[in-house]
Records
---
Amino acid sequence: MASDLVASWKAEIIRRWAQAGDTKNLLKPYSIGKSKSALQQFAKDGRSMITGDSNLSTAVLGSHTAQYQILRANSRGIQARITIENSMTMSSFAHVVTGYGTRADKFVQSFDHDGIVATEIVTPRPMMTSHHMTITFRVTVPN
C-alpha cells in the first residue's frame, strides 16, 4: 500500500476519474524487463528485500497487470478496488542470469508450461507450470 507503484496508481486513478469520468479500467502494467537491466533490477529488488523498504511488495511481486474499479466517489475523494494479476514461472527467477527476451531467456521459458520438465512423464502433476495469483485490495484517494 505504501509502495511507489501504488502511489502512482492512485494518481492515475484520480486523474482518469477527474478528466474522463473513468470508473473502471486497466492500470499501466508493470514489467521488470522494461524498467531496467536485469542486473540493476536485481540489485534494487535485493536492497528492498534486505531493508524491507516501501517497494518490497513490488520487488517480490515482479511483473504484473492491474486494474481498478471505483467503488465510491464524493467531494472528499475516491475509494477504489485494485486487482493485481501475476503469474510466476521457472523463468521468472532466471531473468537475472538470462536477461529479458534473449535467446537464453526463451530457452528457459520453453520449460515453463509444456516443456520437458513439466511433462507428466516426470511427475503425475506438473511441477514447473506457472503459478497464478490474484491480489485485491482497496485504496482511498483523497481529492
Note: Residues 114-122 have pLDDT under 50 and may be disordered.
---
Amino acid sequence: MSGAGGFITARLQSGVSGTPPVDIGRDAAREAARRELSDPAYHQNDPSLLQRALNTFWDWVGSLFDSASGATPGGPLGLVVIAVAVLALIAALWWRLGTPQRTVTPGGTVFDDRPRSAAEHRTAAETHAAARRWNEAVQERMRAIVRSLEERALLDPRPGRTADEASAEAGRPLPGHADRLRAAARSFDDVTYGGRTADEAAYGRLRDLDRDLERTRPALSDAVSGGAE
C-alpha cells in the first residue's frame, strides 16, 4: 500500500507546485485511497474470474491432498502406493468378472408383435444374420423355433409365453433336445432383457437347433396336451 499511498500523496501535493502537503483526516484519506485504487489502471493485470476460480479449485485440491497424505502412513508416497493398489484391485476384478452386465429380467415374452409363421420368422432371422445383426437374428430364430413347435402341435399356442416356459414345455416331447432348448432360451433372454450382445456362433447354435428339431420325431407319450403350460 506504500506505493499507492505515495502515489496518492503525490496526487494531493500536485495541485500547486511548492505548496506544503495538505493535512487531511483519516476518513478522508481512506476515501481518497479507495477512489484512487478504483482506477482501472491498477487492475489491468488482475487475473480473470475464470482464472481466480481455477486457482481456488487447485488450492482446494492441494489442501485435500495434503490432508490425505498427512493422515496416510508414509505421507505422499504412502498415498500414491494406496491409490495404485486400489487401481490394481479394480483392474483384477474387471478382468476376473468381465464387463458388468444388466441383470436379466425373467418373464419377458417371446412374441411381442403381430402373429407370424415360423417361415416368416426364419426369413427375418436370415435377413438379420446376413447384415450381421446377431441380436435380432437370435431373437427371430428363437421365435421361429417356438412358432414351429406350435404349428406342429408340440406346444399349444398361448400369448405371453416366455422363452424359458417354451423350452421347458418343448423339452417333454423332445427330451433329446431339452438342454439345447434351455440354452436357446438363455441366449434369447440375454440379448433381449440382459443387455448382452450375441455373435455369429450364438446364432449358429439356434439355427442348427431349429433345423434339427424340424427333423426330429417327438416322443408322443410325452407330448403336451390341452393347456398344460
Note: The longest helix spans residues 49-71.
---
Amino acid sequence: MEIKSNQTLDCKGLACPMPIVKTKKAMDQLEAGQVIEVQATDKGSLADIQGWAKNTGHQYLGSLEEGNVLKHYLRKSSSIEIREEKNHPHVESAEELQRKLAAGEKATVLDVREPAEYAFDRIPGALSIPLGELESRMHELNRDDPIHVICRTGNRSDLACRILAEKGFKNVKNVEDGMSGWTGPTEKNHKNM
C-alpha cells in the first residue's frame, strides 16, 4: 500500500539536529491535516521525530525503512492541537559538567545518543540509553541523583530532560552544547581500527 503525502522532505545525509530543524520549517508551510514524508538516513532521526511530534502535538503516523533510508510520516495538527515547544529550563555547559566531574562531584552522566555515537567517543563512566529507549529504561536511573543529560548538540538531550522531568525526576540538567562542546577526557569502545 502506497502512503500518500502532501510533501516530501529530503533530509538524507543530515545529522541531528538538521532533520528536525528542516521538518519544523516544512511543517510551518503545511495546512492542518496535511501529511509530510521526511526521508532521513540518520538512525537517530526516528527517536528525534517521534519526540518532537509528541512535544509539539503534531501527529507521528509511523516510519518505513527502505534500504538505508527511513521515511517518517507526520500529520500537521490544527492550531488548537499544537503545543508551544518548551525547552527544559535547567541547563549547563559541557565545561561546567567537566568541572563538576573533575572535582569528584556525584553525578550521573546520561548519554542519549545512538549506540554507535557512544561507542566512538564518550565521557568516561557515562551511561548509554538512546533517546528512543529512554521511557522503557528509566528504571536504570536513580530519581534522587543529579542527572546530566548529553547528546551531540543538546537537542536530543533537551527532549530527554523533558521526558525525565515529566516522569518525576527532579534534578535533571541538559548539557546544552553536548559532546560537540566537550573538551574533557573521553573513552572509546574500540581498539585501534
Note: Strands lie at 7-11, 35-40, 59-66, 69-75, 91-92, 108-111, 127-128, 147-150, 172-175.
